[in-house]
Amino acid sequence: MASSTVGSSEFEETIVTASPSRRVRELLALCFSSVEVGGGGGFKDLESVVKELVSYLNCLAENDELENDVIEVLDEILKVVSSPQVDQEVIDELSFQLPKVTSKFADLSSRCLQLVEDIVDRFVEACNPRDMLSILCEALDAARCSLSPSSCSTPLLHGLSKVFISIQRRHFEQLKVAVPVVLNVLKDISLEKDVQVEDLFDKAVGIAISIRDVSSKLKNEEEVKVRCLLGLYVIQITAILSVSIRDKAASCVPLLMQLEPFLTYCGLTHLGLITESDTEKLMSTVAGDDDDYVSSFPDIKLGASLLLIWTKISQEVGEATNAALGSDVDELQRNLVKRWQAYGMLKYILSSGDLLWAFKRHTIEFLLDITKGVSSSQCNDEKIDCSHYTPSIYAALQILSDIPAPQRFHVLRALVTNSQSSSMTAILLGLFKDSMSSSSLQGTDCATADMLVIELVELVLRPPKGGPPLLPDQSDAVLAALNLYRFALLFNPGENEAGKERSRVSSEVLSKKNLEKAYKEWLLPLRTVVSCSIAENAKEDHGHESSFDSVCLLNPIESVLYRCIELVEEKLTRHV
Predict the structure, then answer these.
(1) What's the pTM?
(2) How many Å apart are CA 431 and CA 97, to the nearest integer?
């Protein structure tokens, strides 16, 4: 850039003045004069003058100056920094401070916002992109502490999107640093009480478009890394935007439709997102073993789950990428492991306290969809170890306690019906029992639970394929089923919220027909199997490890089984 400067005579005014724009003009004149004379001749050096200018602008921001005065100040700054004759040294020095301080005026009016944006853009055009990346990231961090981070960050995010495109080398390393800063700002904005979702969305998508444009210019490994970083960014902002919705989710469908093409560009699918395989691939490519960087995307699993649920909220969202939700459901119904993985991911929606209920309702419906009509014949015959998935699934299922009782019972029923693991079935039946004991259950809920208890206990104690359950292989499920049935026989629902005792006169569990069915078809055949198994193990060498383990599994089953038989016999005498 030309080394000639704007003459100091053009700017010099009396130091003492009542006009903010005049004072700013004076300070800018001092900046140019200090360069003009090499910092000598009694003039203050450039750095100290810039500090004085920043201090003055901060005072203006704190004193709630009139909008017209601020407009004049910003207009003066823009006019000076846009001059083709301004020395590059001055522009560089001003760029370190003015984007941050002028952004504080962006919330005064649309005119102020536009002027600040123009000032930031001018610095982006005139200064080194790598320097501006650091400057704008620092300014964004400062904007998070302002009273209006939404307005203050707008010109900075706009400038950052331009900087991304201007970077000439080491694109991934620099974007990797900037993206978490952007996400932090967007998340702060989403938590504002009166956040405008459309404005937030525009800022988020502007950054995504810039990252995509950078990626399209790259090749080989760096292109892959930038593309994966874009994928993580889109997934994270999906969570941020979804949480920011205060009204109806359907009203934001047009916004989410604009995000879907990014998924295609990044090679992501809704099935890959809901089973976590896509997010793991993205994170390993971008972060590697850097756990600190992984924490920069705290809502990545929530966002991945929401991207699928949005396709259920609106068919239009899925159509934006030609995604067919039905095919995903079919695959999850067929593939047991992927279904377990989906259970673990959906818990992030169910456990979120910031989302609208509509998201949770559609999540529950999706859970029912992927378990509907599934039978054991649709699953592989080979035994699959679910121990790796059990902790995640159990955490997800505990969240079901927040779901209204009717839906909760039906979700658990669907999960039990399609469980291929004895341990998992035991966990599910235990959660079902806990749900029955809830003090908030109403009469209709108790009736629903009664009917489902009969169905679920029979499913375990009298399997659909016929014959009693296999022992000791099915020990966990059998013990849980017996405990559930014993609880149902003894269950006293107590009082409801109105203080009226709930009646179990019409209880299906206690009806004569079902008591006789349980006695003859479940309990007595199981007693024979358990007795024979215990007797066979008693004949074997007492020091044999497998024999000892079998006895340990069978003893608690025998104890609860005989208690159930006693309770049924007692209940039947009341029907005589």
Answers:
(1) 0.73
(2) 58
